[in-house]
Amino acid sequence: MNYPVFKGAGYILVHTPDMIVRNGSTCSIERVTNPDSEFLKEVSNHIRSYEEVVNYLPNQVYIGNKTPDELKAYPMPWYDIKDEQGQRHGKFGQIVPQDEFLALMKICDAFDLVKLSEEFVASVRPKIEENFKELAPLFDKLEGTDINDKEDDFEALVHEGKVVGYVKKAHDVDVNLNAHVIFENLVVKASGVISALELLRSYKINPEDIDYVVECSEEACGDINQRGGGNFAKSIAEVVGLVNATGSDLRGFCAAPTHALISASALVKSGVYKNVLVVAGGASAKLGMNGKDHVKKGLPVLEDVLGGFAVLIGENDGVNPIIRTDLVGKHNVGTGSSPQAVMGALVANPLDKANLKITDVDVFSVEMQNPDITKSAGAGNVPEANYKMIAALAAMRGDIEKKELKSFIEAKGLPGWAPTQGHIPSGVPYVGFLIDDLTKGDKNRAMIVGKGSLFLGRMTNLFDGVSIVIERNSGAVEGETAGISKDEIRKIIAESMRKISQEMLEE
């Protein structure tokens, strides 16, 4: 069977210190319910600088400057490590400063809803022209204006504590197009655009080769008649210059990225499209989500970045890791919600299809939340909890002995390094490293697991999750024989038949 492959991955973080206080859900709710709280008075004193965010070890792993194995060697908490020097750019992507991101929101604005001051534009334009040359055809959109003439409904854009612009509403009465929603959606779009650009840069992908885009973030764009009508995917493709692509949005809370990888792989496997881009921007609402706990404990507000990613799935090239579309795990409606039932459905069931043991998988990429963030908020170490459940399942099945639980977790698990941006940590952060590990490294098989909490939408209490197995490419590509493709074979046969016919006529 000819399987699709991972052709590349791009990852970005955006440092957004002012958005934490102004746009994050925790601070926004606090301003309404308890405007004089000590938390609101104190939170700004716990926000890290751009340099601190760049130097933070998990962030360097996210963009590919350090590996998960290297991160394992450092003692926790990682936020206490002050002597590491990070870089803005990494193998897989970059960490974008807030001022540049605000300018990119303006560039991504198709309806003139973002207004920036002339002073701010003058200061940031040279940075955009230097760091985002691919967007040169859109640089004319980056122009300043008088920001004092604001309408009643607007979302302020703040940098270094100063209002440098605003987002205006897109409709007089439609709440789905108010300034706050437009702001959140432009955040998703702009961070998705940067993620896609980083993928194209890192792997030298021709934008014209991409046929389809699947966007899988957690926001929704639409109007009063269709609140989630979309389409982030096509709007991102337009800015990035994917002129031969169309696309659509896929939603599934935190499980959406893995759903999207499976859907994109199926589209390629079926032959509908040759190259499908899976992309997601970040969620401004989740900035500072656990900020109260962090501030209470005297820690920095660790949820200070937006996340984004892009993954390209294409036809088998005989080199890159293959995506086993026949080895997919899924949490069915009737599966149940016990840990054993969930892990059985997501981990054991797809492996059973190929008569594989859990130990036959070299690495599992699960919910890769950074434990620095979650442990200090009382939620524990999420990746480790997942690995303990997988190890327990392996022991129950007889794949390992109980005394091997700890060594199994150490060998098959990864430390969490992704920001708690909902969908961002869900399995996908490892794909960049996976490509290296299953081509140049010593690993042969991996599993990506995505899980989601559907109750948040108040439509069902069901749990959700999907998984898929990835393997090292054997180098054999179906349809090729000794380097000759099916089309070439057909041409040879046709030419031979013509010669035979000609000879018969001559006789």
TrEMBL record:
It comes from the Bacteria. One of its GO terms (biological process) is fatty acid biosynthetic process. It comes from Gemella haemolysans. Its EC number is 1.21.4.-. The keyword Transit peptide does not apply. NCBIfam families: reduct_C_beta (NF040746). Keywords: Oxidoreductase. This is Glycine/sarcosine/betaine reductase complex component C subunit beta. Residues 249-326 form the Beta-ketoacyl-[acyl-carrier-protein] synthase III N-terminal domain. GO terms for molecular function: 3-oxoacyl-[acyl-carrier-protein] synthase activity; oxidoreductase activity. Residues 341-506 form the DUF5940 domain. InterPro entries: ACP_syn_III_N (IPR013751), DUF5940 (IPR045984), Thiolase-like (IPR016039). Gene3D superfamilies: 3.40.47.10. SUPFAM superfamilies: Thiolase-like (SSF53901). Pfam families: ACP_syn_III, DUF5940.
